[in-house]
Amino acid sequence: MRLGLGLVALALLAYPLVLRGAFYERMGADLLLAAIGASAWNIVGGYAGQISVGHAMFFGIGAYAPLLVFTHWQMAPLIGVPGGVIVSLAVAVVVGMPTFRLQGHYFSMATIAVAELIRIVVGNWDAVGAAVGLMGPAVPRTVLDLTFRSAVPYYYIFLAVLAVILGLTFVLENGRAGYYWRAIRASERAARSLGVPVRRYKLFALLLSAGFTSLAGSLYALMVGFIDPESGFGILVSVEMIITAALGGVGTLLGPLLGAAILVPLKTATNSLLGGGGSGLTYILYGGIIVVIARFQPGGLIDLGRRLLVRARGRAGRAEAHAA
Amino acid sequence: MTILQIIAGGLLLGAVYALFSAGLTLIWGMMNVINFAHGEFVMIGMYVAYLVVTYLHGGPLVFGPAAAVVLSLLGVSVYFGLIRHVMRGPMIAQILGTFGLALLLRYLAFWLFGANFKTLPDDLIPGTLNIGGILIGMPQLAAGAVALVLTIGMHLMLTRTAIGSQLLAVSEDREAAMLMGIRPDRMLALAWALSAAGAGIAGAMIATFYYIVPTVGESLALTAFVVVAFGGFGSVPGALIAGLLIGVIQSLSAYVFGPVLKDVVVYALFVGVLWVRPQGLLGKIA
Amino acid sequence: MGRLLGSGLLALAVAFPSGAMAQGNIKVGVLLPLSGNAASAGQQSKAGVELAVEIVNGKHPGIEGMPATGLPNLNGGRLEPVFADHQGNPSTGQSQALRLIQQDKVAALLGAYQSSVTFAATAVAERYGIPWVVGDSVAANITGRGFRFVFRVTPVARDFAYSYVDFLRDLKDHGMAVRTLAIVYENTDYGTSIADALRTAIREAGLQLTADISYSANTTDVSSQVLQLKDRKPDAVVFVSYTADTILYMKTMKQLDYRPKVVIGDDSGFSDPAFIKNVGAIAQGAMNRSAWDIGKPGSVTAKINDLFKAKTGFDLDDTSARNMQAMFALADAINRAGSASADAIQAALAATDLQADQLMMGYRGVKFDATGQNTLAATYLIQLQGDRYVAVWPARSATAGLQLPYKGWQ
Fold first, then answer.
1. Measuring CA to CA, how many Å separate B231 from each of B234, B237, C31?
2. Nearest CA in chain A to C6
3. What is the CATH number of the domain that holds A105?
4. pLDDT at A246
5. Residue A189 falls within a domain, yes or no?
6. In this structure, what are the phi and psi dihedrals at residue C214, rounded to the nearest 5 degrees?
7. Are A245 and A259 in contact (CB under 8 A)?
8. A171-185, B191-205, C1-15: which range is least confident on average?
9. Contact C15 A277 (CB under 8 A)
10. What would the mean pLDDT of C12-34 be, rounded to a whole number?
């Protein structure tokens, strides 16, 4: 396990040095960003089992905050990032508190509706750019603007943030929070009857998740330098977070990263190879993958890997027993 | 006068909402599953109508039933192929399953039919009725009337026929129903067939006055969720009343507040209902 | 582990082939929405750009007058378009631009339809010093950032707004007074930028805005909006909408029996061939802006249209035509630069000076100012008569007579 983690970390650190060129560097940054978003979602959706389909609301807030700061006060966008996190946390409390009373599908639908609401409001509010959106600094004024020509600095910044999220998740996973979340995910009623403070821990998961998702949005805005209601609050933003986490395995530490490592290159490859043909094959593939995961392997690839490993060990054990 | 016109339009549109939401609420009532691909079922109904008109030169009397048949088959396949398994699984599988299906269907439509907008010829259901100054397009009137009849029909079937009571029994208590000799599997598949057929017919009727493009499913699905939440999960009469109500509220809001805010009103209503009265107007407690 | 890594890299290398430049061919990257909501417009523009490149490469000797035909300064070199699909997503637009720049080593870029994508992706081109020619996106801020490598051939929101107002004022001389207007616009960047420009132009012209209706694109029902218009009775209505909404509006107007004196559609939805196909019969007399007119039979523009129609089955529409024109302007610059060097092409673009008779569009010429905007961009107003659009204004470009008031389905 340690060896595996170490190899993954090494591969991630070495990636831009091995695969050079702006295109690969950008793809790597995109990959890490997707992993950050999916890992953030994973905290409340995977570990605590509350499937939010409206996480774009936090992503969008995180993306708008730095660009708002730049547009209205000409300050470095970076300064707006903490503000975005704070607003996201506030929204999480306001939305989470009443919505957590709802079960399963109700909760998911409510999150979709709230995210859509926010998207429409932002799209019609001139102060935040309305439908046109907001832009970042076109040319960097100081290093603090974080407008790099190459994607490599973004890559390492994202890697650092990912390490923080995963580290935090790892610690919590093995502590009391993880224990309570697993109980809540298995059965809320049972958990409550056992004395688990369900509401408090659901909120805790949501706050963590919202904060990091907001961060992911901020990082996106810093790299792309542009945001509008669709790219910030659109439903595809939420859906992609969920698919990425689910492919790798919800509720696992490295599942979201694995999902991102597969989906981002896959999406880029299908677009580059077939995009000119314009048949939208990328999304047919996406849809197909999701259905297959849901139907056959809801635990994702990590779960699949574990099962295969167990079976292999079982066979080896029986072989030994026979040989003996 | 204008207000009456708006209300009339809202009611007719609302009836169509009721039709495709009735199926959605039935599924929910029976198995606690929300079909996120329901909008795509409506979309497929629209394309069936298009294909019938273009290649078979058939009219509404042909493509209506055609949509019902095609979608019923699809509904049953989806149930046996996907839903039956994910129903018993974790929540993530249920949500992902129908979500993925929605994406798959939507982009398959893109691939098969292209992104170009299609419409049905104007003269399929020609004419405009003028009732005391209120103008009602015949396509809208036909759609509303058919939708109303079918929704009421579904309710009557559920409450007055043998098979209907079997469906309701499975929805109330699956184990007890099994003990009574009812095969839940068959009933659930039937429910999916009915739900999909309702969506398909609604789509085919809408196609006579709306445009056809693979992405219509998105906004229609959200409307269906709102209607179902409002009317109560599991209640077909609830869906009928809610559908009509939402149709009127939407039209009035569009006129009074402007079209953009009308969406805000509807979503806010949705969220409000979920918080204040999750079981909706007539639904059972979840 | 090493083997795994190695085969992984091999797989990646196969998936992303780097384009080794064929001897003598200059590659131009073209970013368009080839899947998703705007795919139909994207596919049409793609066909248009391909046709433009064929003409420039000398494949259609019957087409005379387009600049740089045959590419005389390139010693037998040819242009080669490389298409990329940005799916309407600004971030994808950026990474596809990067792919075109780094892998395919394009000498210049063209695109991208949606203003949001153009805006984001041109920033990448500027950072890498690759020239980008914008054929169709009208958001003002695309050329307002002090970039050196971004050039825009098409007119922008401001130009259109003033054209409409000038036209409406001209109507006084035709005996039809237009004093009040309504704007109905979809509320994303496209609709709002035109609406903003229109409000200013209307105010300056002393006309009155009686209804200002913004709506969400892809709406399900527009009867309330049409009823509002019916109530307020403006003399002229300007629609700024994409195809889907346009179709809905025309149908609803027929159903509710509403016909203002003048209907003006701002391109997009009204130019999409799907518009004429689906609701042309009930929207007779609808006005549209276009810098493209098919022109008289036998003219260069008519011949180009014939080629386009043979290729796609549709008449050439304004948006695709504008992208074609952008490609011609780019080809002219590449020819004058005589090489694939980005800096040489940028300098050549900045020095562009094309005359009106060298263009397929109705611009007065192509000459870029310091921000990269074509100052000679202009537009006709065209009208739907029968199953095609004809140029009706200004008088000097008109190929048919203006028919008012709006007929609709009569």
1. 9, 8, 46
2. A18
3. 1.10.3470
4. 92
5. yes
6. -105, 145
7. yes
8. C1-15
9. no
10. 66
* Optimal mutation site among A91, A105, A114, A247, interface B, most CBs of chain B within 10 A: A105
Mean pLDDT of C99-105: 90
Touching C (3+ Cβ pairs <8 A), the chains are A, B
Q: Please indicate, yes or no, if residue A9 is contained in any of the structural domains.
A: no
Minimal Cβ distance to C216: which of B118, B209, B260: B260
Q: Is residue A3 part of a domain?
A: no
Predicted pLDDT of residue B216? 85
Dihedrals φ, ψ of C272, to 5°? -55, 130
Answer whether C231 touches B (CB < 8 Å): yes
Q: Is residue A98 domain-resident? A: yes
pLDDT at A291 over 50: yes
pLDDT-derived band at C20 (thresholds 50, 70, 90) equals very low
Query: How distant is the Cα of B202 from the closest Cα of chain C, in angstroms?
Result: 14
State the pLDDT at residue A257.
95
Number of structural domains found in chain A: 1
Q: Evaluate whether the domain defined by C158-290+380-397 bears CATH number 3.40.50.2300.
A: yes
**In chain A, what residues touch C35 (CB-CB under 8 Å)?**
275, 278-283
Return residues 284-313 of C near A (CB < 8 Å). Answer: none
Q: E strand or H helix at A219, and its extent?
A: helix A198-224
CA distance A192 to A294: 28
Please state the domain extents for chain C.
Answer: 2-155+297-366, 158-290+380-397
Q: Supply the ipTM of this predicted assembly.
A: 0.83
Is residue B283 situated within a structural domain?
Answer: no
For the segment A20-42, the average pLDDT, to the nearest whole number, is 92
Q: Is residue B58 part of a domain?
A: yes
Neighboring chain B residues of A120 at a CB cutoff of 8 Å:
260, 263-264, 267
Specify the pTM.
0.86
User: Is C79's pLDDT higher than 70?
Assistant: yes
Judged by CB atoms closer than 8 Å, whether chains meet at B96 and A293 is answered as yes
**Contact residues, A window 185-214, toward B, CB-based 8 Å cutoff:** none
pLDDT of C371-394, one tens digit each? Answer: 999 988 888 888 999 888 888 888
pLDDT > 90: what percent of chain A?
Answer: 47
Number of domains within chain B: 1
Structure confidence at residue A324 (pLDDT): 60
Domain residues for the domain of A265 are: 21-323
Give residue A67's pLDDT. 94
Instruction: Provide the token pair at A249.
Output: 């395995």
Q: Do C230 and B2 touch (CB under 8 A)?
A: yes
Chain-centre distance of CA C221, in angstroms?
27
> Are C2-155+297-366 and C158-290+380-397 in the same CATH fold?
yes
Cβ-nearest to C220 among B122, B219, B260: B219
Residues of B in contact with A292 (CB under 8 A): 100
Quick check: is B82 in a domain? yes
Q: Which residue of A has its CA nearest to C81?
A: A276
Residue at B235 is within a domain: no
Give the one of C213, C230, C254 whose C-beta lies nearest to B259's C-beta.
C213
**Closest chain A residue by Cα to residue B92:** A51
Spatial distance between the Cα atoms of A299 and C150, rounded to a whole number of angstroms:
48
DSSP one-letter string for C19-52: -PPPTTEEEEEEEE--SSTTHHHHHHHHHHHHHH
pLDDT of residue B190: 92
pLDDT tens for each residue of B252-264: 888 888 777 777 8
What is B121-177 written as a DSSP string?
A: -TTSS--EEEETTEEEEHHHHHHHHHHHHHHHHHHHHHHHSHHHHHHHHHHH-HHHH
Question: Nearest residue of C to residue A21 by CA position?
Answer: C102
Mean of pLDDT over chain C: 85
Q: Does domain C2-155+297-366 have CATH number 3.40.50.2300?
A: yes
